[in-house]
């Protein structure tokens, strides 16, 4: 009788432990919510960055003259538009920001400031033209009227790392549609409202401590381009925003 009583008491004492273990096991088997894009970021793109112009000086540092369209795969329709470029007319029409849209803004010299608007949206502010871009993570871009910066859909591209291990690195891909017609260059080289802008943001760390952001931009436009227009823009990370000075759009 004493042995049987001890056995019963042992079972009763062990029951809460077994029950707790079962609850823990069941909870572990339940699907966990996916991390937010902010928490899942394989690379930190936030901070202040200043553009370093190492190429295309004649098209980026000054407004090139009318007719200087070298290296842009323009259609005859695009050339006709560019040949009629008039910066005074653009200013009078309230369209001085034509060269500051998503198709060209990363090529305009100046600083950019990248922050998280919320857990699912990256925000990019530019000194040049005082523009704001919102990169939303998800499966569909939000509806809205065409604008200079359009509607941008973002996704992380993970690289490196073994299966089940944390990512070794990655980059950001951004696809922008819903644009107002703008300029690829300040001298009137156009892109239409049908343009699609695809960008790749890659951060690299140099042995000397410098941190760089390379933005590769691909513009496709069935109206004004007969091929992809590809550029790479380089930004060096700044220590802080003490030199941040936003400026308005200028037509020339």
Describe this structure in words.
- With 252 residues, the protein is an alpha+beta fold.
- The protein has four helices and eleven strands, in the order H-E-H-H-H-E-E-E-E-E-E-E-E-E-E.
- The protein folds into two domains: 1-32; 47-237, no CATH class.
- It is 18% helix and 30% strand.
- The chain has a nine-stranded mixed β-barrel with strand order 1-2-3-4-5-6-9-10-11.
- A hairpin with a 6-residue loop joins strand 7 and strand 8 (190-191).
- It is globular.
- The N and C termini lie far apart (101 Å).
Which features does this protein show?
4 helices; nine-stranded mixed β-barrel; 252 residues; alpha+beta
Describe the SSE topology.
Elements: H1 2-29, E1 47-51, H2 57-60, H3 76-83, H4 87-92, E2 111-118, E3 121-126, E4 132-137, E5 151-159, E6 169-177, E7 182-183, E8 190-191, E9 196-205, E10 211-220, E11 229-237
Parallel strand pairs: 4-5
Antiparallel strand pairs: 1-2, 1-11, 2-3, 3-4, 5-6, 6-9, 7-8, 9-10, 10-11
Quick one: biggest sheet? 9 strands, mixed, barrel
How far is the first residue's CA from the last residue's CA? 101 Å
Number of helices: 4
Coarse morphology: globular
Compact description:
The protein has four helices and eleven strands; from the N terminus they run αβαααββββββββββ.
């Amino acid at each position: 009788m004493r042995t049987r009583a001890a056995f019963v008491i042992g079972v009763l004492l062990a029951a809460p432990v077994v029950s707790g273990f079962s609850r823990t096991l069941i909870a572990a088997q339940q699907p966990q919510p996916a991390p937010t894009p902010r928490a899942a970021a394989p690379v930190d793109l936030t901070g202040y960055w200043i553009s370093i112009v190492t190429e295309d000086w004649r098209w980026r540092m000054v407004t090139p003259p009318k007719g200087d369209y070298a290296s842009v795969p323009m259609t005859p329709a695009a050339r006709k538009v560019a040949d009629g470029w008039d910066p005074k007319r653009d200013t009078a029409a309230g369209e001085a920001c034509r060269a500051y849209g998503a198709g060209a803004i990363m090529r305009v010299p100046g600083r950019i400031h990248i922050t998280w608007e919320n857990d699912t949206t990256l925000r990019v502010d530019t000194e040049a033209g005082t523009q704001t871009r919102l990169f939303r993570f998800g499966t569909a871009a939000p509806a809205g009227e065409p604008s200079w910066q359009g509607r941008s859909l973002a996704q992380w591209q993970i690289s490196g790392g073994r299966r089940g291990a944390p990512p070794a690195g990655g980059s950001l891909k951004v696809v922008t549609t819903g644009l107002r017609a703008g300029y690829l260059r300040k001298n009137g080289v156009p892109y239409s409202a049908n343009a699609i802008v695809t960008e790749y943001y890659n951060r690299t760390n140099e042995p000397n401590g410098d941190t760089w952001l390379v933005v590769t931009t691909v513009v496709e436009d069935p109206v004004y381009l007969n091929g992809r227009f590809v550029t790479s823009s380089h930004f060096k990370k700044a220590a802080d925003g003490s030199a941040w000075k936003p400026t308005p759009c200028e037509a020339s």
